[in-house]
Amino acid sequence: MRVTVLAGGVGGSRFLKGVRAALRDGEPSEITAVVNTGDDMWLAGLRIAPDLDTIAYALAGVNDEERGWGRAGETMRVSEELAAFGVGWPWFTLGDLDLGTHIARTAFLHDGLPLSEATRRITARWPLGAGAASIELLPATDDEVETHVVTDDGELHFEEWWTRLRAAAPARAFVQTGVEASRPAPGVLEAIRDADVVLLAPSNPVVSIGTILGIPGIRDAVATTPAPVIGVAGIIGGAVVRGMADACLSAIGVATDAAAVARHYGPRSAGGLLDGWLVDEVDAASAAGLEADGIRTRALPLRMRDDASSVAIVRAALGLAASGSTRG
Ligand code: GDP
Ligand code: CA
Question: Looking at domain 2-144+180-322, what is its CATH homologous superfamily?
């Protein structure tokens, strides 16, 4: 089985751990994660790729679970040195083990390798797959397309808005710098086209999934793939599970509501992306309306507390994909 997952960082990594655990004991399967690169940036002379690293660390089991970012067991000594030199952003600390990844990535890029190859070399360090499930991480694009936030006080990098301002300055718009000339990374369109199922992780619909879909060709690939496309709501009972996705949704005029996000992605029968959609049980009442709109909808607990709860979500998504097998 070939499963392709569009994913951002934390929500994406938890979901991907569930995909891996759901497939580890079955037939050999290939999981391809198409990962958001809009949060990437140059900082202190280094190329940072937050979502790729969050996913790689989580799958490798070397992430700092408590903090929610970076590597377990790292120190801030290097970051403190950088701050003493006035280099980088004082509010954006990077642990020393994490900085090792950024130095390695920057070295690969400096040698002329594309981000996708740098990612392959970085992730080769750890087994990301498990049992019968192999996993490849593909950046959505090798090009430097960064998400910027337009506020009343000007435009700034998404990470500055998110981390320094805690999304408190109302976002008027999100822009992807240089997106027009960008292309999907090698393998991305094929992974979407040739998949048995395409899953949209419960990642931020605007600045994770939306940014991936904004790379020319990717939205079209999802809309036209013969594979069923199933999405998972990251909004439960009208609130984000963690993070500030509500601040992103309101900027694009979408309510913080699982059904509103599904309608934002749209049913494939009307040129949208979704064949199916999973909502939490507390949002079960929205299923009938979504079904009427052409999106097969199931309700079940969507909080990913551990691998077991993520596996149940993934199994429901795969079941929903199989239940409409008139396509492909
Ligand atoms: P980021 O790149 O680290 O911001 O992470 P993502 O974009 O991948 O995921 C952020 C989204 O994941 C947020 O909108 C959260 O509401 C959602 N999320 C986080 N934890 C859970 C969970 O346990 N269940 C569900 N359904 N969504 C979650
Ligand atoms: Ca992110």
Answer: CofD-like domains (3.40.50.10680)
